[in-house]
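Predict the holo structure. Ligand: adenosine monophosphate.
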Amino acid sequence: MRIVLLGAPGAGKGTQAKRLAEKYNMVHLSSGDILRAEKASGSPLGRKVATYMVAGKLVPDEVVVEIMAQAVAAPRQASGLLLDGFPRTVPQAQALDAQLDRLGTPLDRVVMIDVSEDVVVDRICGRRSCPKCGAIYHVTHLPPKVAGRCDQCGYQGQFEQRDDDTEPVVRQRLGAYRKLTAPLLEYYRRVSPDKVLVVDGNRRPDEVTAALVAKLAPAA
Ligand code: AMP
């Protein structure tokens, strides 16, 4: 199964993608994670993408398309592909569609996690992650079972906050989302109307997961 996960920053794409990838044995490709790794490497490309990321702006299409095309084409064992955060613009979606057509592996589903903006700002500003395994938490809505200890890998210590998860940068990211990413839903409704699913993301993570699994079941 090949899925694109759409949704505003803070819609819960990362949390849900990890769960779905595990359940359906899919490779989870998060463009944000891939770009953060490039940034952390300190390479010339990493320094270039960092300037956009810290400002809450989208990295230019040609850069992201190139990086993600390599990740999508990489050989793998898993039975599916889950794209999280990519595509984020119509030109990126067109490039992805063209690549998947060439590979003979078109998308099966485009899943939109729909959330309201006030929910999103609260979620992002409280978001934390495990520095060891990347598990995602929220200071009030989704804390680890034992304070300061990761449920997934047992890491103990400080959890991390992303440097672009501050309110001014979040507002900028939401602006980019409204202008450039929200139109993707219409794009996919036009080119693949039978593949698009919308799930209400204004709920607890477990409820969203259950709704996603129920809607994806026919394609799984
Ligand atoms: P995310 O972790 O998905 O919220 O992405 C964090 C940041 O990485 C975004 O605010 C952008 O600066 C950049 N980014 C991630 N995915 C893309 C993409 N598909 N196109 C452009 N920029 C992206």
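The longest helix spans residues 167-181. Strands lie at 2-6, 26-30, 80-84, 109-114, 127-129, 136-138, 196-200.
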